[in-house]
Task: structure prediction
Amino acid sequence: MHTYIHKLRSLLFPANLPKRGFALHTKQQSYFLEMPPPCLDLHRFEQLVRRGEGALERGEPRLAAESLREALGLWREPVMSAMETGALLAAHVTGLDESRLRALELRIGADLQLGRHRELVSELKELVITYPRSEVFHAHLMLALHRCHRRDEALGVYQRFRREMVEEMGLEPSQLLQQAHQAVLAGEPVPSTAPPKPQVTIASERPAQLPGDSADFVGRGGLVEDAVLWLTSAGLADLAPRVLSVHGMPGVGKTAFAVRVAQRVRSRFEGGQFYACLGASGEARDPADVLDGFLRAAGFPPERLPAGLEDRAALFRTWTSMKRVLVVLDDVGSAEQVRPLMPAGPRCAVVVTARRGLHPAAGSRLVGLDPLEPAESAGLLSAMIGTERVAVEREHVDRIVQLLGGLPLAVRAVGAQLGSVPGWPIRTVLRELENDARRLDALSFHDLDVRGRIAGSYHVMPRRAQLAFRKFAATGKPTLADAEAAALLGYDRLETGRILLTLVDHGLLRISGEAISTVSYEFHPLIRCYAEELVEDVARRRPLTRPRRTRFCAHRPRTMMRQRRRRPG
Result:
């Protein structure tokens, strides 16, 4: 390898010639070739294709045909045909071939607008053989033959294509081809076969899908700065995207934190910013559907998108392999959801939010969010209802902040209620919150629902963890040591530790204190309220007295036993 690199440097950078922006870097047993974009034929190709598309949109087919013909002239042979390619390079080659095919369709469409149908017939006949599933090329050929007064051949093109589609795939031709067929039959002008305009440009769009930042975001300044530095400090030696995984208890503000960080760094990712909520707390989204949205936003036409998850993921990796792209994945349920959505470029970045601490990729950095400090919670409430109103009832505000335990979602629920009725006294809300049995009822306002968020984490846990959650609440103790938990659950220390860590991982329990020899666990105040509700609900549904023991089998009714005794013989 060292010998090859030495020869490559000698070829690219002769001692008697200036480097002109070229550089071959050596970084930690890896190599990085830097060169000015105008020196790449791929960069020139993409520029010419964009110029041709713009000319078609402006109604200048002659300029479009010239630009697209020049772009296609840069292709000498199939990409990387003389070398073996792995999975990543093979996906990149596929993307480049799709770009060439798109440019060819546009160029033929421009030539047809210029009345060059006679010259195109032979070329199009070769193309429909090379690409037997391309409806665009078949429609172009029908149009060219129809203009040459060869209607019988144009109808034969349609009939052969339709027969193959029906027999092999069970599908009818698209509406575009059917309209062209009807026009030929009626002797009318064939509808334009020009491909769609802006949204189908290959790799020319720059998605900007990030949600808006929160104007009242408070606290966590140090964590935000660390995350921004981590995402933007990728160097030439990096071979994979940087991944930031944000986790914390339900309602702690993971989404707001991720959006704040993403908005801070968006200018560094000029290739585009993608956002998707994967819905772990509700109905989980299929990664294939998410990729469909990403690729469409990037400018890929729907008819060019592969059907399977693996093919879409490969196309997305290809598109991102030479770009700086930011991907934000919210409410993730598992690392398996994330992996197909990962970009491939080493200058890309991914921000993931999850209720559990996920490692979507090797080298991911985890950020755990804790509840807000009392002053930060009061500051958030002030931002929502006004500092004057908070100052008038400061004691009541401090008590509310204490009852809410610094949970941002709960603070927002209170602030939204108070903000909706400007004259509503804060002490009235405090009165409702001081009632433990009704506290979670008071923290539900429109889409701000603390109980619903906690329930979302509870219901995805294994049954043993759910049972431990209720048993812990039933003790009424503020903290529980691991030895006490083992005695309560009836398992050994090792198995009990696994169950308790499941609760911690889902954000429903937290480790209390810093003791080394023994570990204690505790509830967040609002999660304790939810756990006590579950305990009361189970007690309500349980029978008050146990059925009297009998000498008959429990699984066989008494009447059946009597009938058996009456049976003769």
